[in-house]
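Example record used in the benchmark description.
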Amino acid sequence: MRATQMESEERHFDLTRTSPLGLEMDESKARRLDETLQPLLCAMSVSCRVLRLSVETQYTIACILIRYYSRRRMENPANKIGERHGDADNKEILGACLFLGAKVSEESRRLRDVINCIQMIDFTSSMNTDSAGNDFGGSDSLKQPSSDNGSNKQKGKIHLIWKAKPPLLDESYWDMKKKIIQLEQHVLRWIGFDTFVSSPHRAVILVVQNIFANRLSNGETSPNILTKQQQQQIVTDAWWLVNNTIFSSWCLQLPIMSLACAAVSLACRRMEQLRIAVPVEFFEVSREQLVESLTALERVERQLLSADS
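Model output (structure tokens):
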């Protein structure tokens, strides 16, 4: 009984204190990192869909990828994020993170499938410079589309091209397979073998279930009690908001319960004829934390929507 209580307290601690990323960066550094890694994260998101990985596994892979690049910069600021890492390029690092993250989340995929995926996705964007003009260099860096006069290409747009056929099973494939396995160990060493990621997705479900239970115990009747359809819609909308946070290192530094409460709060606001106050005090989330998380979620949503327009 005591052991069960201790395990429950540890999980509760993770929900209320731990951030998904597990790192601390100031806002300016986080923004520069986001601008630099955005194309790689877009390719990661597409790869996860192709490999049919769950949203929680995608979240884990994104956090491992960001931890790797951020820790390289923190350990040695002279390292350039966009450059080749030894004899590896960013696609190969992405493949290693996909392979590692899927295993960590117990959704392992064959290495052949991972290699096919990263080889068939071609993408170009701004990984060699950030908005401050800092050079992240590297001959094989991800390039940003030119914005020369007369060009229809827009600065900051990310172009993903899906190739028609997977690579052949020739000698280059076996070299790539060997390299991905080596890079998996390389990534693990850089992140200090810290592959644990606290995902806010299950916290979202916990918040919605708590709202339903509280309203039911208070004797409220329809339409005040959430229907199953409303619960599902809130969870879906909140998960969509939470998924956006992989593109913001600043969001990923916020406590997961704070993120979950903010996502549910925004989802409830956007549902017609539904006025629900999320009981943040029950989850030990302060009003200041809620406001900070709401602001961060809305900011990253606006950035992604403006990029699509």
